[in-house]
Amino acid sequence: MSEFDLINQYFKHTSVKRDDVLLGIGDDCAILSPPAGKKLAVSTDTLISGVHFPESTRAEDVGYKSLAVNLSDLAAMGAEPAWVSLAMSLPEADKIWLQGFMQGFNELAEKYNIALIGGDTTQGPLSITINITGFLHSDHVLKRTSAKVGDRICVTGCIGDASIGLNVILNNIDHHLSDQQLTYCKKRLNRPQPRIEAGKLLAPFSLAAIDISDGLLADLKHICKASAVGAILYIDDLPVSEALLRYYSNEPDWQSILTSGDDYELCFTCPDEQFNDVQKVMKLNNIDVFCIGEIKDTSGITCLLNNQPLHLEQTGYNHF
Ligand code: ADP
Ligand code: MG
Predict the structure, then answer these.
(1) Residue 188 CA, distance from chain mean position
(2) pLDDT at residue 118 above 90?
(3) How far apart are the CA of 3 and the centre of ligand 2, in A?
(4) Model's pTM, two decimal places?
(5) What lines the ligand 1 site, CB under 6 Å?
(6) CA-based angle 215:115:61, to the nearest 5?
(7) Which of 119, 137, 155 is the last residue of a domain?
């Protein structure tokens, strides 16, 4: 099967069609028609086999996750997804694998009405690079630089589940999870739900936000650095799942939970006077908000557990 047969069979005829794609897959470039007066948000993420997902990950999950982590970046700016391009390096032209990959990919593309507009297909070790573009509907966006002293620090969901899924898969360790709980943790790892709706609802408030990909501590640190502030985290207030409590026999390993990545929840900061409105709009849309800390006029992040400082190595995933 040639590179061009692959493109024709798996990439060219996807189900999402959009009027703003004037020319899609098949020429040297795609031609797009951005909506008048809207700004574009653009992001790229690469996933490498054995680094960003275990080599044993099913093709469907690789396809789903590749798009999900890119969508998560758009969510963190408050953008609405529109177009995506897909560059793949594949060890071989494995039809079954590609079919599975595109099934997972298309599931999310259809959910958010995202058109695949082009890409590149090469032979080499398995790696996927996605470039995604979304629209910003006003000048109000979620930027890392917007945190202010006194803001609450909030997250949209549980932290640490994906790291348990990864631990169990990689280390084959003895765990106390029920089948249902294990499935839940693996799903949190392989099928993260990008918080697109949450991002769009938060954008009008011009808050600071980031998606948690490298671990809450590392990602919150990015907000703190960009906004030149510090933070205090109330560990007791972190939302955690029953599966997590069971896995750690009610004594969570906070170091691991706060520094392992792949949560893909949003972490945002919010001034007190805006919090009621934020909470109201999120509740109306069935999105959880948990307050877990406060922005401070200090440097660094202090973690408190039971009112006692908890010392954690403040690292996150780092490639080099
Ligand atoms: P070129 O030689 O100009 O780079 P290619 O032969 O690589 O073009 O690609 C042919 C067409 O197929 C282009 O429109 C390109 O965007 C598209 N394409 C190639 N690989 C992919 C892919 N993995 N997913 C989506 N579109 C792809
Ligand atoms: Mg090419």
Answers:
(1) 11
(2) yes
(3) 9
(4) 0.95
(5) 7, 11, 25-28, 86, 88, 116, 118-121
(6) 45
(7) 137
